[in-house]
Design a protein that fits this description.
Order of helices and strands: HHHHHHHHHHHH
Strand content: under 5%
Distance between the termini: 30 Å
Helix content: 55-70%
Number of domains: 1
């Protein structure tokens, strides 16, 4: 396979393109799928190049975080949260959220810190797609941990485990759209980087990672407008889909369907913004 440093470069100019239609841009990306796979492989190889444990970190990092939360919420706090076994409940929400967080954080420098963006003839969208898919690979590497805990606690698995596939597909759409929005804007407005970090901290607690979805959507003490806004958080419904195979009562379609609609809207908006800002971004970097 070709070395990542041998990706073909443009012969002249900064690689500016005219603003093409959505279909033309999508086809351009599809034609470069081999280069996309090459960049994903490069990202994974560079990330773990000098690491002794290598890909084990994809499992160890979320596992250690889960153990900390498990100890705090089940051994220190007397009020129970989530469902039993809590470690499985926690991991099934934490793993996809970490994928979400890593992509959103990575999008803030997906273009501005990548030296090959200007010098290659690749569609610029690929620099976002390779980030989304590389982090998906890391998420997939950690999934066997869920199976281990499910077996250890003899947790029943229902047909809803199949919803993991559409959940991952929806999350790819969401993250790609967010990447298309964030990556070019952060080049032109540097403060976006700080805003992203603040929003991610808020979203961690505004998403059912540490607790269950029914604790919010079925809680009549929470104002209806807040519960509606909560359901519009795309990760709320996505995590519900991931968990439904082990915890069927977490599947709340009233939260899933709005999240799917918002994910598609974010993707469409991101695609449009990326196409419109591409020329300005290339001049800036």
């Amino acid at each position: 396979m070709t070395d990542p440093d041998e990706i073909p470069t443009a012969e002249r100019g900064p690689g500016l393109r005219t603003v093409a239609g959505p279909l033309e841009r999508a086809l351009a990306v599809a034609r470069k799928r081999s280069e996309l796979l090459l960049l994903i492989r490069r990202d994974l190889r560079v990330r773990y190049a000098q690491s002794i444990l290598g890909y084990v970190w994809s499992v160890l990092d979320p596992l250690l975080m889960s153990l900390v939360f498990w100890f705090v919420f089940t051994q220190i706090f007397v009020r129970s949260v989530g469902e039993t076994p809590y470690i499985l409940f926690l991991l099934s929400g934490l793993l996809p959220f970490m994928w979400f967080q890593q992509v959103v954080e990575g999008s803030t420098h997906a273009i501005k810190d990548e030296r090959l963006v200007r010098s290659t003839a690749l569609p610029r969208e690929i620099w976002v797609l390779r980030l989304v898919l590389a982090k998906f690979c890391e998420y997939a590497f950690a999934l066997p941990v869920l199976a281990i805990f499910a077996l250890a606690y003899r947790t029943p698995v229902t047909w809803a485990i199949l919803l993991t596939v559409p959940a991952a597909a929806i999350q790819v759409v969401l993250l790609t759209g967010l990447g298309f929005l964030i990556a070019p804007v952060v080049v032109l407005v540097r403060d976006v980087d700080r805003v992203v970090r603040i929003v991610l901290r808020f979203l961690f607690y505004a998403t059912p990672v540490l607790y269950g979805l029914p604790d919010v959507v079925n809680n009549e003490q929470i104002p209806t407008v807040l519960r509606t806004l909560y359901a519009l958080n795309p990760m709320t419904g996505i995590i519900a889909l991931y968990r439904s195979g082990f915890f069927p009562d977490q599947l709340q379609w009233a939260a899933v369907l709005p999240g799917v609609a918002v994910s598609l809207a974010i993707f469409a908006a991101g695609w449009w913004v990326f196409a419109r800002l591409e020329h300005a971004v290339l001049k800036e970097i």
